[in-house]
Amino acid sequence: MSETLHSDVLISGGGLVGQTLALALAHHGLSVQVVDPADPVTTIAPGFDGRASAIASAVWRMFDVLGVAPHLVDHGCPIRAINVGDGVPDGGRIGDLDFVTADDAPPLGMMVENRQLRLALAAAIAQAPLVRLHMPVDVMARDVDAHGMTLTLADGSKLRAPLLIVAEGRRSPTRDAAGFSIASWSYHHHAMIGAVTHERPHGNVAYEIFYPSGPFALLPLVDDAQGRHRSAFVWTVAEKDGPGFAKLGDRGFIAELQKRAGGALGAMEMAAPRMTYPLGFHHSASIVTDRIALVGDAAHGIHPIAGQGLNLGLRDVAALTEVLVDGARLGLDLGDAALLARYQRWRGLDNMMVSLATDGLTRLFGIPGRTAAAVRRTGLGAVQRMPMLKRFFMDEARGEAGDLPRLLAGAEI
Asked: For the domain that residue 112 is a member of, what is the CATH number?
């Protein structure tokens, strides 16, 4: 008879959100088993693949508590200012809005290559004996009963815990099989992502320019080993234009990229492969069911317009960790419906509000015409002149708004 391995929690999905959650739970004394079909060796292969993330300051504090931040000391680039503008076809900007941090204030966030995040998590998990990774592995069956969840792996072994947490990303098979109700739609846009070296230093400034065809962002990265200045880009184009841009050679692509950047950083060269993917929205009406909880993109997928997708998932991590650790200390069943309901109440509203806000911004800045542009310029100008409103948006960017879990405040649970 095959062996059954028991733990406090099972996590399906070993990406950035899943591994952070495993580390957070283990840091507070809960045993965790993580399953994922991906080979972790391929996700930390040498070389920069162009993917990078803006980590909100509150999430960075959680990384510090969990021992991840020390592994990122030389790899995180602080975002000290964000310049927002409505774009015009020739690459210029009008109606600029600046968010600038005080010298003694925390940055708005830290830009880090995703590969470096994965390496840092791997190093921290290597020192966490309560985490066991089953990667790569295929799950052949998922069985729930009154006392827990059992996963049967391809080799016949079984994993069992009171709770299964699903961190499988947007196309989550476990979520779909469990019958979660998902609202979703396509934006009919493609996002192109990558990184460039550039002539002028970025000064720790991020640029967000809203063109009628879609938003364009330049996000500061640390200089490379040769001392060249670098920034990541996220460039949204209409669905019909995506294939054409994908076929452009590097010289033609850079010419178009520099035009959209409006000369802000001078001459550019490609620093990593570029990627293109379709953009869509999805949101789960509920994030818990019988002994299952959703985190990250399995629960919500939003437009990258504000760079909050990963941060939203890591806020799920902080809240769910606090709920489960508090429950364990009271001797509760970690899959208990009343315990999971606390997580639903805590994260359900915030997830919905952020999702709807990013969707609204996407639609507002995508409306063509002079009247719409005038309305946007008026709105940007109004925010620029109202310090309290600017502070609100800066707190949101830092991840410091709302009912913060203790980890996001930089405290142990």
From this structure: 3.50.50.60
**250 part of a folded domain:** no
Which pLDDT does position 44 carry in this prediction?
76
Range of the domain at 155: 4-184+280-409
Given this model, what pLDDT does residue 263 score? Answer: 85
- Cα–Cα nearest to 295, from 13, 37, 24: 13
370 pLDDT band, cuts 50/70/90, is: low
Instruction: List pLDDT tens digits, range 10-63.
Output: 999 999 999 999 999 999 999 999 999 998 888 777 777 779 999 999 999 999
Strands (E) in 263-352, as ranges, are: 268-270, 275-284, 288-289, 292-294, 300-301
Count the domains in the chain: 1
Residues 6+ apart with CB under 8 A from 125: 19, 22, 23, 26, 131, 133
Q: Is residue 28 part of a domain?
A: yes
Selection from 110, 119, 133, 121 nearest residue 49 by Cα: 119
What does each C-alpha distance from 54 to 85, 86, 314, 399 come to in angstroms? 19, 21, 12, 11
The distance in angstroms from the start CA to the end CA of the chain is: 39
- With respect to residue 159, please indicate whether it lies within any of the assigned structural domains: yes
User: What is d(CA 381, CA 269) in angstroms, rounded to the nearest whole number?
Assistant: 33
Q: 393 or 64, which is more confident?
A: 64
Tokens 């299952």 belong to 292
Give the distance, in angstroms, between the CA of residue 9 and the centroid of all CA atoms in the same chain: 23
